[in-house]
Design brief:
The protein is of the alpha/beta class. The chain is about 35% helix and about 20% strand. Helix 2 crosses helix 15. It is globular. The model has no long low-confidence stretch (mean pLDDT about 95).
Length: about 450
């Protein structure tokens, strides 16, 4: 039996009462939290690992609810372009030239970046090599719900991605049977629907049916751009959300990503069917999707979480930064400084994220019996002191630099800023080599933004 005792910390539990234990402790036994707050010394074994966290903050591990692992090597290939150019001329050609090794390196690099910014759980939006993603998650020790990028129709798809609805369902069923609940239970397999542009009604209906049967989630980009609703109204008679409602696809296991272009009625439909929402503030601004009506969704009780999206559309897998942006942009949009306050942002990144991941009974808060997924923040940096209001400082002043240690499932993934699960320097070199290799293979040529003079 392995025990870890973290003591003398400012413990932000995010439990139902949102209790904070000042000068508190957490006793971890194997992969679970055994005691929190004041620890009875009789429970502590002689072999316990003791961490004195005086002056530091302990949080539940952050939950990133929208990530593209396979896009990590494409950071920087699609900056300052519109969404359709981004997809059809940059990202899809890039991703379609991946192989297993490329996906493994990309996925591993993405997992490490998230670990360094305090993420212990993430939801993958969909790639083509789920097996490589699973290997990366297993090796890095993080927790994840993985999906295949699923498309059975649409303009501009690479030929090697074109599949029928039945083929896509079958492949995902095989992935579920092989990988769900593997890696000590850290890996879940969800079903993917890329976008309604690329998903037939047949595929949507069959996906909902099998996901319900297997009691797993569905990950889908929904109401991402205004043109999406216009297109669906023209071709299928309704907006995206209204059409999904007509098909019977709305439900508590559906994660709707972006959701920028929702009407009041569609927000009410989400509330009625307990549809989950992933808000991606940086990507929405960078690719000019618009401003999702997050304050309105929160006001109506929707489970709204935060995601980073992929590296070509953000370009950082940094949940600390996303929390900061989430609060700022909605104050600006509504001209109300009180909307989406710091404590609500922190809920979105932790317990709301757990609800969206369908894991609220396991993670998202620090409570007895839950998984030992947590991070230690060190506020002793010039950019985050003084610490008059710790919760506000976490959201408004701290960055991934403040994430000192990250634990998932009772194991340290990063400790004192050192990645423990692999050799980070070797991974960085692999990223440099493989990213250039794929860009060349995909024939993507980026123009120089300023004159470049090669000195020989």
């Amino acid at each position: 039996m392995k025990q870890i005792l973290i003591k003398n910390a400012y413990v932000v539990s995010m439990n139902e009462k949102r209790e904070i234990y000042n000068n508190g402790s957490i006793l971890i036994e194997n992969d679970l939290i055994k005691t929190i707050g004041k620890v009875d010394e009789k429970l502590i074994l002689d072999t316990v690992e003791i961490i004195d966290a005086k002056g530091k903050i302990i949080l539940p591990g952050l939950i990133n609810t929208h990530v593209h692992l396979s896009q990590q090597l494409g950071r920087g290939i699609a900056d300052d372009v519109d969404l359709l150019t981004w997809l059809r001329e940059r990202v899809w050609p890039y991703e379609s030239n991946f192989d297993y090794e490329s996906s493994l390196i990309s996925s591993t690099a993405c997992c490490i970046e998230m670990i360094k910014s305090g993420v212990t759980t993430f939801l993958e939006a969909g790639g083509q090599y789920v097996e490589a993603m699973a290997e990366a998650v297993k090796n890095t020790g993080i927790r994840a719900a993985l999906s295949k990028s699923v498309m059975d129709e649409g303009v501009g798809l690479p030929t090697n991605w074109i599949k029928t609805a039945d083929e896509e369902i079958q492949v995902q069923k095989e992935l579920f049977d092989k990988y769900n609940n593997t890696a000590d239970g850290r890996i879940k397999i969800w079903f993917g629907l890329r976008t309604i542009f690329n998903n037939s009604d047949d595929l949507i209906i069959k996906t909902k049916k099998i996901a319900d049967k297997l009691n797993t989630g569905i990950h889908m980009h929904i109401a991402e751009i205004a043109a999406e609703n216009d297109y669906i109204k023209t071709n299928r008679g309704n907006s995206t959300v209204e059409h999904l409602h007509k098909l019977g696809a709305l439900g508590s296991n559906l994660l709707a990503v972006h959701t920028v272009w929702l009407t009041d009625r569609e927000i009410d439909l989400f509330r009625l069917y307990d549809v989950k929402v992933s808000h991606n503030p940086a990507a929405a601004m960078k690719v000019v999707l618009g401003f999702a009506r997050i304050p309105e969704m929160l006001e109506k009780g929707l489970s709204v979480s935060i995601g980073t999206d992929g590296a070509p559309s953000n370009n950082r897998m940094d949940m600390m930064r996303e929390m900061y942006l989430t609060s700022l942009i909605h104050k600006g949009r509504t001209l109300d400084p009180k909307v989406v306050p710091a404590e609500q942002v922190l809920e979105m990144a932790t317990i709301n994220g757990a609800k969206c991941a369908l894991l609220e009974n396991e993670v998202g808060s620090l409570e007895v019996g839950k998984k030992a997924d947590l991070i230690i923040l060190n506020p002793n940096t010039i950019h985050s002191l003084p610490l008059h209001d710790p919760i506000a400082n976490i959201v408004y002043t701290m960055s991934s630099e403040n994430v000192e240690s990250t634990m998932c499932n009772g194991k340290w993934l990063m400790k004192n800023r050192e990645i423990l699960v692999l050799n980070e320097s070797n991974l960085i070199e692999q990223v440099k080599i493989k990213s250039e290799e794929i860009k060349t293979k995909a024939k993507i040529v980026l123009p120089n933004r300023f004159p470049v003079i090669d000195i020989i």
